Amino acid sequence: MEKRDELYRGKAKTVYHTDDSDKLILLFRNDTSAFDGEKIEQLDRKGEVNNKFNHFIMTKLEEAGIATQVESLLSDTESLVKKLDMIPVECVVRNVAAGSLVRRLGVEEGQLLNPPVFEFFLKNDALHDPMVNDYHIESFGWATAAQVARMKELTFAVNDVLKALFDQGGMILVDYKLEFGVDSAGNIVLGDEFTPDGCRLWDKETRKKMDKDRFRQGLGSVVETYIEVAERLGLKL
């Protein structure tokens, strides 16, 4: 597989074309950012850890019957993925109150949410990723009603798989975001990544934060904690 020109450069990942028009290479970099890019640092080994963590999680989801973009690991920091037409919204599920939900609604952090809360956010850094709903998505043509319904269905299926997986590792899956795209056959497929950068994880006993909040809040040991999360799940890094 030959890596060709750069297609897209995000805050922590770069996407490249390949000599196969249906495949892309996803490079996980050591860049770490928060607050819409206001806080940026390089963290040694973060790209490697997130690349291998993402492949591990996506493999678990594939085994559970959830189609994902990931094909294979190419190197410590690179993965081969299917090319998707990405839908420009994030699907967020909240199992426990934390983060922006606490700030918006004035609820107590740590409150169990039953049923879980589902939210859509538009992917737009300039607008700070505003919350949107099904009507916005359909009216502006970002996705069809059937695609919206399928994204919701798959997001909750992911929740069932990963809540159990993290629970076995002594962790609480507090919340997370997912992104989806459309493949060449018109199917909705899970894309982008699932790493501690895009979810909140707490230790079940101590409520120690084990995700990017360690970076956002200046708690330190970011990559070391990501490695601990991986090892609790059975992934040796």
Could you walk me through the main structural features you see in this protein, from its secondary elements to its overall organization?
With 237 residues, this protein is of the alpha+beta class. It folds into 2 domains: 3-82, Phosphorylase Kinase, domain 1; 85-221, D-amino Acid Aminotransferase, Chain A, domain 1 (2-Layer Sandwich), CATH 3.30.470. The protein has helices at 46-63, 100-105, 134-139, 145-168, 213-216, 222-232, and strands at 3-9, 13-18, 23-28, 31-34, 39-42, 70-73, 78-82, 85-86, 89-96, 112-122, 131-132, 171-182, 188-191, 199-203. Strands 8, 9, 10, 11, 12, 13 and 14 form a 7-stranded antiparallel β-sheet that branches. A 5-stranded antiparallel β-sheet has the order 1-2-3-7-6. Strand 6 (70-73) and strand 7 form a beta hairpin. The model has no long low-confidence stretch (mean pLDDT 96).
Q: What is the number of helical segments per DSSP (H or I, 4+ residues)?
A: 6
What's the structural domain tally?
Answer: 2
Give the N-terminus to C-terminus distance in angstroms: 25 Å
* Unreliable runs: none
* Estimated share of beta-strand residues: 25-35%
- Text of the CATH class of the largest domain: Alpha Beta
CATH architecture designation of the largest domain: 2-Layer Sandwich
Q: How would you name the CATH homologous superfamily of the largest domain?
A: ATP-grasp fold, B domain
Structural class: alpha+beta
CATH topology of the largest domain: D-amino Acid Aminotransferase, Chain A, domain 1
Helix fraction bin: 25-40%
Basic shape = globular
Major beta sheet summary: 7 strands, antiparallel
Number of DSSP E strands: 14
* Alpha-carbon Rg, integer: 17 Å
How confident is the prediction overall: mean pLDDT?
A: 96
Multimerization state = single chain
Order of helices and strands: EEEEEHEEEEHEEHHEEEHH
